[in-house]
Write a structure and sequence with these properties.
The protein is an alpha/beta fold. It folds into 2 domains: about 1-90 and about 245-255, Nucleotidyltransferase, domain 5 (2-Layer Sandwich), CATH 3.30.420.40; about 120-240, ATPase, nucleotide binding domain (Nucleotidyltransferase, domain 5, 2-Layer Sandwich), CATH 3.30.420. Helices cover about 35% and strands about 25% of the residues. The chain has 7 helices and 11 strands. The chain has helices at about 35-50, 70-80, 110-120, 155-165, 185-210, 225-230, 240-255, and strands at about 1-5, 10-15, 25-30, 60-65, 85-90, 100, 125-130, 135-140, 145-155, 215-220, 235-240. The chain is globular and about 60 Å long. The two termini are about 10 Å apart.
Length: about 260
């Protein structure tokens, strides 16, 4: 079994894979920069026990992180539980694709894992949209080359900014509005963020396909993707485990 760990700005995700990219489970905890290595070790052990998995069943572990302050604590936690050191994803590993950007080390490891996950289902050209703290779009061509990235504020990041910086606007959920034109404050905000984000992503997909001169298969993942993808007009494959599948794929290449 392979343990995969993704440290994001909002959540840390854990999954275990038994000889297949499809995870046996997908668990999330809040990313806490103050939590100690011991606390993270207890959390990992508890998650494994909840799913009836013994630490000795784990033969490999691969981790991606965009939060350096948390990485060392979780790496230490994993070292205390496992008999081997976890592989940390970076651009110098065998990823199964190449990176054609000015500085490959700038490309977030979450983006690399999304690409590896999508390439398990399609040889490209493809577009990945990861809707987390930021909304990140990346493009991989038919030669398995990651061509570049677009980064926009995330859905909840934008909503939080509205609520925190505008006295009259409340905190809201992401329930779909019944109509595009809101007749109250909450529906007006929902309509703006949901239809606005969907429209932005439709335009981004259109611009990428026009720039590259080829239609692309589009994948979406991330915590906000279920709220937005139903309103995107392009055909999209939504996969909540896309990043973890990519971690598994990279892990197999580098164990």
């Amino acid at each position: 079994m392979i343990l995969t760990v993704d440290i994001g700005n909002s959540n840390v995700c854990f999954s275990v894979h038994a000889d297949t990219p499809e995870p046996l489970f997908l668990e999330r905890i809040h990313t806490d920069r103050t939590r100690t290595a011991i606390e993270y070790a207890v959390t990992v052990r508890t998650i494994l026990k909840l799913h009836h998995i013994d630490e000795t069943d784990i033969r490999g572990c691969v981790l991606s992180s965009v939060v350096p302050q948390v990485t060392s604590h979780i790496m230490e936690a994993l070292a205390s539980l496992l008999d081997f050191r976890a592989i940390q994803v970076h651009c110098g590993l065998d990823l199964g694709f190449t990176i054609d950007t000015k500085d490959p080390s700038e490309v977030g490891t979450d983006i690399l894992c999304d690409a590896a996950g999508a390439l398990l289902a399609s040889d490209g050209p493809l577009i990945n949209i990861d809707m987390g703290t930021a909304t990140v779009t990346s493009m991989i061509d038919s030669s398995r080359v990651l061509r570049g990235v677009l980064i926009c504020p995330g859905v909840r990041t934008s909503l939080n900014s509205l609520s925190e910086n505008t006295s009259a606007l409340p905190d809201i959920g992401l329930d779909a509005p019944e109509h595009a034109i809101g007749t109250n404050t909450v529906d007006a905000m929902r309509s703006g963020i949901i239809f606005g984000t969907a429209g932005m992503l439709d335009r981004i997909i259109q611009e990428i396909e026009q720039d590259t001169g080829t239609p692309c298969r589009v994948f979406a993942t991330g915590g906000c993707s279920p709220f937005i993808t139903p309103f995107i007009r392009h055909s999209i494959t939504r996969d909540p485990a896309l990043l973890m599948k990519g971690l598994y794929s990279i892990g197999l290449r580098n164990l």
